[in-house]
Amino acid sequence: MTYISELKKLLPEEQMTTNQTMREQHSRDESYHEPSLPDVVVFPKTTAEVSKVVAFANEHQIPVVPFGLGTSLEGHIIPYHGGISLDMSLMNRVLEIRERDFLVKVEPGITRTQLNKELKKYGLFFSVDPGADATLGGMAATNASGTTSVKYGIMRDQVRDLEVVLASGEVIHTGGLSAKSSSGYHLNGLIVGSEGTLGVITELTLKVYGIPESIMAARATFPDIQAAVDAVTGILSSGISIARIELVDDRSIQQVNTYNQLNYVEKPTLFLEFHGNEAGLAQDVEFTKEIVSDFGCNDIQFELDNKARAELWEVRHNLAYAFIHGFAGKKLMVTDVSVPLTELAGAIIDARKAIETEKMDGAIVGHVGDGNYHALLMIDMKNKEEVEKAKRVNEHIVNYALARGGTCTGEHGVGVGKAMYQPLEHGAAYTVMQSIKQTLDPHHILNPGKIFMKKDQ
Questions:
Q1: What's the rounded mean pLDDT across residues 43-64?
Q2: Is 258 helix (H, G, I), strand (E, B) or coil?
Q3: What are the CA-CA distances from residue 266 to residues 232, 248, 299, 311 (Å)?
Q4: Partner of 26 at 20 to 30 A CA spacing, among 41, 178, 395, 450?
Q5: Which residues pair with 379 in a beta bridge?
Q6: Cα–Cα dist 428/424, whole Å
Q7: Whether residue 407 sits in one domain with residue 355
Q8: So what's the pLDDT on residue 320?
Q9: Using CA atoms, how far apart are residues 235 and 229, in angstroms rounded to an integer?
Q10: Strands 84-87 and 372-379
């Protein structure tokens, strides 16, 4: 670590630290993956400072791992090769709000909640809602999505332009301000989801939306998973302006009741939200009632009041924490696959069988409007047998999805947890990805060990 004294000449002393506690905070994310300490944590304030640090690291072949808030779930920000943890938290400004263009320009360290607080003054909001209050840079790096993607799309759909520092220290822009372009390669799409392996995002220009005139939430229970998924298909094919449609299985509802002291019916449940104008929303609600009743809906409750609606979605967003706090001493493993809608019910039922076969306690939730679902497994990391069981469940779920045209990760990203499945999912395209990595990062300093398996680096 002799390079640190030289690194200190690039930035003010207060913008980097080798403090053990700070290094430990940057050694892990919210996943079950093993932590690993960086050599030093650096807090840049400008693109120029990022460029200096990355160019220095490239010259000396030192790993650089961008860090947002550490909310990732597949070990993306864990510095397994040591080096520099590049904490972007001081780059957290809203740079420009172009309300008439429905665009906002921000630095990567700002969180979605902070951004929406600023946008509200203009009657606008940023749509991507992964649950965690993640940074916008981190959300772009993993191509995050979440509960609202069924209506507004995923992170990649919101990115108009990125400012990116390449491994050489060179700064590029990947897009522009116009709504469409047929010019050149789609570099936005290349950088979004690259998990810091191709460059460090230092600025984002994002699409934003007008706040709907009226918003209605609902909770509908069904006799089984098949009925709930069939109802989703019915709602999506009806043209109803549905913004969120989430599936929570009966085991999840049971944990919700315990953690939140509620008395929800413990059956497969859809959490829904409708965006629109008052008149149109009234029609959508009535139509939804008809549709879900055709699929055996036991009960549907609607919430128009802002507080009640917020409480309903708080229950959904805090589901993982309901399990974490309910299983002291255990770590949460979250699977994350996506399949075609026609395969969704079978996939969820199969996942439940896999959990039961391994005699594990687990729940299943999903952004079922786009075929994305998660199994939540609480595991004792000191119990090797339990860890192996969880890994077998995860592998089974992934292989089931891939065999049916799905993906090993719908929104959490690859990190280290899904690297082993990349050759199987992408085939010959995997070598194309390796070639791109080699071209843009020949010394493999940018988040090494992520997306690609260690032997393929």
A1: 98
A2: helix
A3: 19, 10, 12, 18
A4: 395
A5: 331
A6: 9
A7: yes
A8: 86
A9: 10
A10: unpaired
Q: Which range marks the domain in which residue 307 is found?
A: 214-320
User: Is residue 451 situated within a structural domain?
Assistant: no
Residue 270 is encoded by which pair of tokens? 């859809």
Q: Is 11 exposed, middle or buried (0-12, 13-18, 19+ CB in 10 A)?
A: middle
Q: What is the CATH number of the domain that holds 338?
A: 3.30.70.2740
Edge-first strand order for the sheet with 171-173 is 94-98, 103-106, 200-207, 159-165, 171-173
The CATH number of residue 183's host domain is 3.30.465.10
In a domain, 264, yes or no: yes
Residue 209 has pLDDT above 70, yes or no: yes
**Residue 427 within a domain:** no
Kindly compute the dihedral angle of the four CA atoms of residues 302, 304, 305, 311, in this order, to the nearest 10 degrees.
Answer: 50
Alpha carbons 317 and 322: distance in angstroms, whole number: 10
pLDDT at res. 456: 64
Q: Where are the beta strands (DSSP E) in 54-134?
A: 64-67, 84-87, 94-98, 103-106, 124-125
pLDDT digits (tens, 9 = 90+) for 161-202: 999 999 999 999 999 999 999 999 999 999 999 999 999 999
Is the dihedral angle over the CA atoms 352, 358, 362, 365 positive or is it negative?
A: negative
The mean-pLDDT minimum among 22-26, 202-206, 376-380 falls in 376-380
List Cα–Cα distances, 439 to 63, 185, 427, 442, in angstroms. Answer: 17, 15, 20, 6
Q: Closest Cα partner for 116 from 146, 101, 136?
A: 136
Our CA dihedral for 137, 140, 143, 145, rounded to 10 degrees, sits at 70
Enter the DSSP assignment of 219.
Answer: E
pLDDT surpasses 70 at 339: yes
Predicted TM-score (pTM) of this structure: 0.95
Q: Report the phi/psi class of residue 270: left, alpha or beta, with left for phi > 0 and alpha for psi in -120 to 50.
A: beta
C-alpha gyration radius of the chain: 22
Give residue 123's pLDDT. 97
Is the pLDDT higher at 454 or at 177?
Answer: 177
133 with 111: CB under 8 angstroms? yes
- pLDDT tens sequence across 342-382: 999 999 999 999 999 999 999 999 999 999 999 999 999 99
Residue 453: is its pLDDT beyond 90?
Answer: no
324: nearest Cα among 142, 87, 132, 195: 132
